[in-house]
Amino acid sequence: MTVQQLIPLIIALPLLGAFINGTFGKQLSKAMVGVIATTVMAISFLFTVLVFMQVQQGDAVSVKLFTMLKTDSFSLNAGFLADNLSVWMALIVTGIGTLIHLFSIGYMKNDPGFYKFFTYLNLFIFAMLILVLGSNYFLLFFGWEGVGICSYLLIGFWYGDFKNTIAARKAFIMNRIGDLGLLIGLFLLLAQFGTLEYNELAQKVLVEKLIPSDWMILGITLMLFIGATGKSAQIPLFTWLPDAMAGPTPVSALIHAATMVTAGIFLTVRSNYLFEASHLTQDIMLYVGLATSIIAAFIAMRQNDIKKVLAYSTVSQLGMLFVALGMGAYTAAMFHVTTHAFFKALLFLGSGSVIHAMSDEQDIRKMGGLRKMIPITHATFLIGTLAIAGFPLLSGFYSKDEIIAHAFTHGTWLYVALMASAALTAIYMFRLYFVTFFGSFRGTHEQEHHVHEGPVAMTLPLIVLAVLSVFGGLLNLPGVWLHKQAHWMSHLFEQNVAGFTALPKHAENANLALILMVVAGAMSLLILLVTYLVYGKKGSLPVADEAVTGWEKLSKNKLYFDEIYNFLFVRPLEWLSLKITQFFEGIVLHRGVVGLGQVIGKSGDLVRKWQTGRTDSYLLWMVMGLVGLVVYYLIYKN
Amino acid sequence: MGHLLFILPICFALIVLFVPKNAVRIVGLLGGLTTLVITVGLICTYNSANGMHYFVKQDWIKGFGMTMHFGYDAISLLLLLLTAGLIPLILLSNYKNELASNRLFTSMVFFMQLGLTGVFVSLDGLWFYIFWEITLIPIYLIAYWFGAPERKAALLKFFIYTFVGSIAMLAAIIGLKSMAPSFAYMDLVNVALTDKTVAFWLMAGFFLAFAVKIPIFPFHTWQPDTYAKAPMAGTMLLSAIMLKMALYGIIRWLLPLFPEALETATYCIIVLAVIGVVYGAVIAIKQNDMKRLFAYASLSHVGLIAAGLFTATVDAISAGVLQMINHGLVALGLFLAVDVIERRLHTRSLSDLGGIAKQAPKFAFWFAALAFASVSVPFTSGFIGEFLLLKGIYNYDWIIGAVAGTTLILGAVYTFRAYQLSMYGPVNTAEFADLHWSEFVVFFIIMVIIVVLGVYPAAIIDFVKPSVTNLLELSSISTSLAK
Fold it and tell me: pTM of the entire structure?
């Protein structure tokens, strides 16, 4: 089949799955529902692989379905663009998506909303594929909002608990703030270029060199970046992501770690030629990313909910990705997006497996000693932890190192700051690992009795992701040892992704790269050793909530971001709403009209003596009269 | 065939008065559907290349200057379609209520349809005014006869507001006629308004009538009270169809008649409309009565449409028409959702509700779908409509556009607050029966249309665009006449 035929199928399959499960899911058995949802994903993944093989070496392929809207000044097309960037993202989405669907069959098997869960999950994939495969910013926005809805539905999946629905609402609203920025960015693009098609834009900017004025390009890129801060959880719009952990764990793995939250990265990489034209935006992006990365890592230090640690870790990693984007290291960012998708999905699914084993306990203080009780989960979780902590030769080591190497050439201070963020990451991840899996079991007796490994549907995805987390680094090996296959991803994207060949090349210094890698590796090993001594061997435990003091209290309370936002935005808005209702609606405007009414009413008293005084009877007569008039006309005059 | 648009509603308004009580709702539905079929027929036979299609065009009362000019173009047709489509849906959504079997109620609905149809096809200033006023009667009576016990004060307010607006419009029509040979639409358009002050006041007369009915801030205070006190069918008629008369009035009358006066006034009007967008949304955030909440939401949504129309560009007006259809559908759906709750629990205050989703999953699904449509997510017609409207306003003035854009955020805040407080959380209400088939059918039809238009909005935009272009040409002719 050709790419033109395959692309619509890739997108339609998850929609079909959602449709089947959404309409008939209630009648079908759970096994059937799970199999349908997972099968459509697997086929979709297979097709994506086929597309990848065809597109990989050639030019990008566009597929146009139909014109959604055509006005005099612009047209909006439903079309798709398959180049190595979009197909790569589609591979991640469908590939990891398939594994997580499979995992969910086991994880959600006792949930009464089983069919609904898979409907939403399929629907999410559908929207996410539109986001990455669409041929213009408009379809990207379509998918962008679409994944927001699915995210809302899935965060609030267990809506019986009010806390979850509030988290869902918060996520949706904070995303919408970013969306408004993105929308304005789209308006600006339209005003400037008259098109939202990637191909045409790239043509105009890269070939015809129609670069807008400094202010305009700054406006466009800043607005796009604001959109990205919402979806990819950057300061100031990041507080929704940790709350989003209220959703079932597979959702956290799929949406809030591997795919949706990287949409902002994708948007920036897709628009690389625009961002390259505005260095101010790049700098802003870099600083925002850096601040997010360090702040989130700091907060993660003293979280005791296994999922919250991972959530802040995601925010922190996303921040690091924006640092990479700010430096113009787009391939490095995509490389880290890929490996991060592997090991963060692995860690989330692993945490899901732990929570499953612990009968829904999420507090790591009540776990401990799980190493021997759930060996597969333990082994895979360990691999994930090592990968994210930058343990030598695992995937995260290479991808993070590439960003850090860029930072080194960008400025020493940036290098130090990023290393600090990476060190924090290693510390909190090892802390999480040791507290959870080492020491003695601290849960209830009942829980201990019940601890068990999940079914194959759950362990298989863990194993696959663990393998990917180990070997993922091969995708873009630095040119230190191997020369033939080095920088495979860089070559891939330069093949047919607009803007990539125009990027400035960083001179590859093999010695420098090697030194930086040794330093990073040594740091990771050192932290492993220290955390092992503290948490593993000595068995130190996080203290009770009331006992934390000093910086730990700040970390534990998330630097009071939620409280500050409440004080600055939420409460004033609610206050305004109430005051307007009372004062403006109730007094100013109401008095005016009622006053007028009373005047009219009083003057009416004079005439009323001759009348029956019933408005409805007057009106009825008026109706009759008018009807008579119209009927008369229609019958006699026509 | 155009005549049938008048004849059918009159016939059915009379017929339902005499059929047996248990047949009223069936006859009512049949009547609504017949008109719908006729309207669809008109749309199929309409060729947009021909411009305005007059189905009656003759002089009438010569000395007075009143003519018999009735006709339609694509804009009118879409609003006729909206009316003809929503009337059966309103009747159907009340199918389970006692109201639907009430002869007077059903009769009044058809009178309403008569008036609305008249407004959308009148091409004579006086006829436009007459039909405009006729619509007031059935809606007043529906609210008066079937409304909540404390409806009188609200209705008085409603009456005063609309009456003042209408009188102002009548004065403006007569004033304009004094400079034209007749009340016919084209004659009025061709009036050369050389005196700026006169032009402004005539424009203001029309504007006041429209501003009250839309409503545009600060002419809106009748709306929440009236919505809250009217029976649900009345609220549906008011918000889903009736306020479209005023938006239609802006397109058909205000823009072509007074382009020169609008040049100076547009900025203020758009600012007012956008204030309404934010104002309505902010108030909706803390409302406890769901009906009031959606009334303020409606204020916010139509403010955006009005602001877009006044930018007077082909794109924005076409999008405005699309958004009128969308708003009609969504408003009807949301008020039905409130009614579904109120019928079963006899309350619509959010503080008493909760956990309905567990008891009535079907209802929860459709209500959620409508909530998403209301915040204009992709795959719903509101998405494209809002996108184009905001783009139009943004191009007009980027700051106003950005402020109007906050509706994206605030809309999500109040809509999901309402949805979650009523549907989610622990169950704290008595039994809640899931949807009746009639309610289900209404939700289903509404959502299908919304999604189809969301994926293929070109169906509306392409149809309406030639007429909008013609209309804006009229307005530029009118401008050149004045100069």
Answer: 0.89
